[in-house]
Amino acid sequence: MTMSGWRQTVLEHWLKGCRILVVEDEYLIADDLRSILLEAGAEVLGPVPNVEDAASLIEAEQQIDGALLDINLNGTMAFNIADTLVAREVPFVFATGYDQWAIPDRFALVPRLEKPIKGPQIFAVLAQMIQRKPCLPPL
Amino acid sequence: MAASDDLLVGQAAKLLDENEQLKTELESSLYENARLIDDRDRLLRRVTALARELQSTSSIKLAQASDRADDRTAEAPTETKLSETEEELRVAFEELQVLTEELEVTNNELQRANEELEERVRSRTRELTALNAELRRSDLRMSTLIEGIPQLVWRSGDHGRWTWCSPQWTDFTGETSAMSQGLGWLDALHPDDRTAALAAWDKAEIVGDLSFEARICHKAHGKYRHFQTRAMPVRTADGVVLEWLGTCTDVHDIMRLREQQNVLVDELQHRTRNLMAVVHAVTIRTIKGSRTLEDFRRCIDDRMSALSRVQSLLSRRGSQRISFDTLLRAELSAHVDLEGSSSALKILLCGPQDVPLQTSLVQTLALALHELATNAVKYGALSVPSGMLKVAWHTAQSDGSKVRLLVDWHESGVPDIPKPGASPRGGGYGRELIERALPYQLGAKTSYAFTNDGVRCTIEVDVPDDDVRLETNGARTLA
Q: Please, which of A28, A40, B231, B252 could form a disulfide with B226 given CB 3.0 to 4.6 Å?
């Protein structure tokens, strides 16, 4: 196995058992993300297609280890959801077709994945953000 | 305008120089005149004195003549004295003649000099009058221009102390010229922009021109509009700043259009990236549902065509909404000739025209309709002679205020119906779109089932609020 292959395996492993929230309004994309995360052994919260469903899901869930957040939800910007996640110290990434300048400055440090998103990208970014969480298995 | 003004000012300066020169000349001629007048007076005095002397000499002569008649003996010595006097008189007459001639010459000179001067003064006065008239016309042109341009124009001393504003400023802000003077103009600016405006003035005096953006209150509407303010100093030949001339240009609409453009670019980015992600997802699903590469090629080709069709509908409509019948017809037309004679017997479309769809629904609904049509052509009502497809739709207002569109896709006359539990023949993608994607994205209610002789599918979605049309359900048979 190559170095990048090993890395991939390790990163995937890091997601195992993590509870990941997916907020994405396009069904086909949401379903793809769900499949990718399920294959890596993560538990998927959602996917939910809009701000209201996302807010009630976040409120209902005790444990959220990470989140994938689409910015434009059928014309509504998801920055309120992002603020809630920041307040709860949940690491998250933006999945978007927007340029960086369209994102408010307070989220300047939030990683941004450009659509269409591939599995390895999610593992690399999300897993590294979550790695300090207790859900990580020993290496 | 500026070039001709420079010319006028140059001409005026030249004329002023010439006038100065004429004044000097006039002074020296006055001095010369005074001298000549002195000479003349002196000469006149001498002429008068001589004339008197001549008179007295004449009267002595007359007296002597009468004496002679009385006393001829005293004649001799008096004769001598008389001839002396006559000699003197002759000399005096000559002198007087010379002086009178001199006086005449001097007088003539004086008159000529005066006439010449008067003529020169008249000519200069004419030139100055013409120049003044030209300056007045130029002034009028300038003020007409200043009051005719759309910009708000003003004049200012140092540190932004205004001295004058154009009627445009008064019309827009409601501030009279007097109110705008000094720092009065600041009152018309948005409170948040005043500090920056004053800072720009501080900088202007260092860099030599003024430029800043600020919101100015439109008195008539009570709203602020964005203005670009610029000014340049008017300097003397040695570079001393006399005053500042400035304009405020309304850039509000340009800024608004620029913002709109940003929003549109954003939207385009969003749509493009999303579309790529959808293409990706469709491709993955098609790969999973294909047994052979040939299967995949045909299927992916159809699905990409469906996506292209809906994209072209979306882009062509601009901000207008796409109606359900337009979308349905576009998808069916890709599979069958709706105008053909065979379709007339097999396909029945009943429902009102122009029921608008939410834009976010269009793409997914198009894909779903595409899958329904594909399956009908491959395995369903449009694959057998006995088959029949009826699509009926209508709008209805449920208990709430929401208007819903209800669509009923009904195939019949299909003998070969899959057994319950058998794996779906089209890979189940169409069914997934209808049963899961539409409810997920748009809160649609859907059903998908096999009856005895064909597929029956219902879709119920919200009609957008802004353009609700409740129409009587007039059934229409196509083709």
A: B252
Measuring CA to CA, which residue among B227, B160, B152, B216 is closest to residue B190?
A: B216
Contacts of B273 in chain A (CB under 8 A): 96-97, 114-116
**Residue B192: per-residue pLDDT:** 93
Phi, psi of B478 (to 5 degrees): -85, 155
Q: Chunked in runs of 10, what are the mean pLDDT values of chain B (479 residues)?
A: 63 76 76 76 76 75 70 58 71 76 78 83 87 90 86 92 92 92 93 93 90 92 92 90 92 88 78 82 85 90 88 74 89 81 78 86 88 87 87 84 88 79 69 86 86 89 65 34
- Chain A residues whose CB is inside 8 A of the B433 CB are 27
Say which residue, A128 or B115, is predicted with more confidence.
B115
Residue A26 is nearest to which of B269, B278, B436, comparing CB atoms?
B278
For A116, nearest residue in chain B (alpha carbons): B277
The Cα–Cα gap between A72 and B70 comes to 153
Nearest to A74 among B271, B277, B360 (CB): B360
B403-412 vs B454-462, strand pairing mode = antiparallel
Residue B77 has a pLDDT of 57
Which chain B residues are Cβ-neighbours of A31 within 8 angstroms? 281, 436-437
Query: Residue ranges of the alpha helices (H) in B158-223?
Result: 167-173, 177-180, 194-207
Contacts of B437 in chain A (CB under 8 A): 27-28, 31
Tell me what ipTM this predicted complex has.
Answer: 0.76
Position B394: which residue type? H
Question: Measured between alpha carbons, how far is B477 from B348 in angstroms, rounded to an integer?
Answer: 5
Closest residue, chain B, to A24 (C-alpha): B441
Q: Helices in B318-385 by DSSP H: which ranges?
A: 324-333, 341-346, 359-378
- The answer to whether the beta carbons of residues B414 and B387 sit under 8 Å apart is yes
Residue partners of B301: CB distance under 8 A and separation at least 6: none
For residues B393 and B474, give the distance between their C-alpha atoms in angstroms, rounded to a whole number.
10
- Residue B162: phi and psi, rounded to 5, are -70, 150
Question: Is there a contact between B273 and A115 if contact means CB atoms under 8 Å apart?
Answer: yes
Question: For B419, which DSSP code?
Answer: P
In CATH, which superfamily holds the domain spanning A3-130? Response regulator (3.40.50.2300)
Residue at token pair 């008179």 = B55
Q: In whole angstroms, what is the distance from residue B216 CA to residue B224 CA?
A: 5
